[in-house]
Input
Amino acid sequence: MLRWLLGLALALGLLMALAYLGLRWYVWPQLHELGPRLVALINKELPRPLQMQSMRGAIVAGRPVVRMEGLGLRDAQGQSALEIGVLEAEISMAALLWGALDVNRLRLQDVTVAARRLNAQTLEIAGWTIALDRSQDDRWLQWLLSQSDLEINNLALRWRDDVLASEVLIEGVKLQAVNQLREHRWRVDAQRVGGALTQASLVAHFHHGLLKKPQQWQSWQGSLFFAAQRLDLKEAIPWVDAQWLPSLLPQGGSLQLSTWTDFSLGQIRKIRIHRHAALCSRKCRENVCKHRENIRKCRASIGSRIRPDSC
Output
């Protein structure tokens, strides 16, 4: 027994020594190169190169980490499209040993993004043009799903809609995304969305087929939860296209809202809505109830099971 314990201790000591030698003689000399390589990897995914104020590499808890500060990107007109106060990237040790560069964990702090809807089929986010009418234009989704562990703190989004001639500032956003081989867990919290939403949260948990590409959203199956402490209908309606608004939706009042959605293979299977309309006028509550009755009548036509709460 003692001999077995000594052998185990010797093996562990040998492994620790090899790990130290790998850090000291292989990873540490590459630290000054990791920053430029990471910048080149990021710029490959962006429409224009990032500018930055400072960059350095370090070993944190035995892992190589690259820290960048003061990053920015401008659009074709020279306007600020993306600003990042701090970016920290934890580099994969396994990938480094094979001469590659991969990010295990990405953390962004104090981020400002400019987004715009140019027309019904085109968005522009951080200087990146996204064509909604092209099913193959899924670069942004592919990038998001490829991040093993993504965390964004204190994000502000400036949204401009040229179709509806409206603007809104989304403040205090925190995003967490964990992506595994088949399973994906996302959470987005926003303190304020203009004057329409306060303390809003979106939580998504879904998976896809083993042989399917993650960005093929038609193969996703999972659930989606959305809640808002306060939804001001008068403020929110101008931001939504008229064809998406229910005909009996009240034009004013405030709600506390919670929704649970189950989806599978690109189709909604079940929706459950809970709302507290204590801040609504009586007419507002009556119109909400009428709309929910219409939802019940439309179950067959949309092919979904919808279970709104009773009024």
About this structure: The longest helix spans residues 2-27. Helices lie at 2-27, 31-45, 93-97, 139-145, 233-236, 282-297, 299-302.
